[in-house]
Amino acid sequence: MSTTLAASPALKSLALNGGTPVCEKPIPPVSVQITEDDINAVVGVMRSGMLAQGKNCLALEEAFGKMTGAKHMMTCANGTCALQLAYEPLFQPGDHVLVPAWTYVATVSMVVARGGVPIFCDVDPATYNIDPADARRRITPKTTALACTHLYGNPADIDGVQALAKDKGLKVIYDAAQAHLATYKGRGLGEFGDAVTYSLYATKNMTTGEGGFISTNDENLAKDIRLLRSHGETQKYIHGRVGYNYRMTDMEGALGLSQLQRLPANNARRRANAAAFDRAIAQIDGLSAPTETPGAVGIYHLYPGRVDPAAFAKPGDGSSVRDLFAKALNAEGVATAIHYPRPVTRQPAFEKLVKDFPPVADRLAETLFCIPVHQGLTDRQVSQVCEALSKVAAALR
Ligand SMILES: Cc1ncc(COP(=O)(O)O)c(C=O)c1O
């Protein structure tokens, strides 16, 4: 994003205060909310001296398992090792694994870390999640598993994914890192697939700083994952298999339990904010709102809108319309974020593995922008975001 505001003729007509944000403090793209209750919960564990995985992690597993409809819930150190712990028992080195071309890097990198071969599938242009029809076209004789992200908190087309998996005998791992308590057709995400993973990273809708979950409804798989999480230890100092130390601390467990109390209300607030943005964007030519998958209730970890470059003037300096749009929103006091500036298929780590670049993912990398949608927004800030969207769109025609 090398564009400067002054470099754009279109922006000269916009009252951007010479490129200085019109608001003293731009509306931040994320908000990490730690309450006194959160602090007291963590301090309580510290005072107890029982710091490692313990009763708070267990209580968190029980509560989050119930809320997501999963029989077995395991806490772990982060969302990346949650994927690793789920992948290891579910496919073998050399297996081909269908993955979305549009997701966070970890969904794919952990496939490669396991020795699997990622088969990149295109995504739906409106929901941004894996397109089961494209995945079906890309299946190879060595394909044994499918990893599906519920990106931005919007559940994917689970019926489509499960039908494909049933038809082709695939294991399914859902990456719900961004989708805590989202639902599909009235059911918790923990009810679907072979395993579901989550991240509790600092900016997620609920957090433990770093942290994660893996859930499954298969008792044997749950046993395997628990063993892998803790050095394959079957009895004290007896290691039945090679494993890792991917445990969560009990301080994180306590923070998670405390955060979980507020999650339903925070998710509801995010949905209300998103609905306001949907209404505003519906009035603006050249912008598109994200589309919820039919039957899904998302939690808007992020609010990813799209710019249609054809609807706006071409930037004079060769930058993309989206980059200019994001920059102008920033100048209006709305901090935008680009999740993601390129698809995983265009990452140096994976590019050489790609035979046929999925086009929708490439297009999203040029057109998608995220605006603040978090529960920390005031009503006034929600209106400010809506006003900034229409003001910037008008100025860039
Ligand atoms: C879709 C997705 N998968 C996996 C991860 C990895 O989680 P963590 O950062 O907790 O390792 C993230 C984190 O941002 C994510 O967004």
CATH superfamily of the largest domain: Type I PLP-dependent aspartate aminotransferase-like (Major domain)
The CATH architecture of the largest domain is: 3-Layer(aba) Sandwich
Under CATH, the topology of the largest domain is which?
A: Aspartate Aminotransferase, domain 2
Q: Given the helix and strand composition, which structural class is it?
A: alpha/beta
What's the total count of β strands?
A: 15
Which ligands, by name, code or SMILES, are bound? pyridoxal-5'-phosphate
Q: Which value, in Å, is the CA radius of gyration?
A: 22 Å
* Distance between the first and last residues' Cα: 20 Å
Strand content: 5-15%
Widest sheet: strand order? Answer: 1-9-8-5-4-2-3
SSE pattern, N- to C-terminal: HHHEHEHEHEHEEEEEHEEHEEEHHEH
Q: Unreliable segments (pLDDT under 50, ≥5 consecutive)?
A: 1-22
- Work out the count of structural domains: 2
Largest β-sheet summary: 7 strands, mixed
Q: Give the helix level as a range of percent.
A: 25-40%
Number of helices: 12
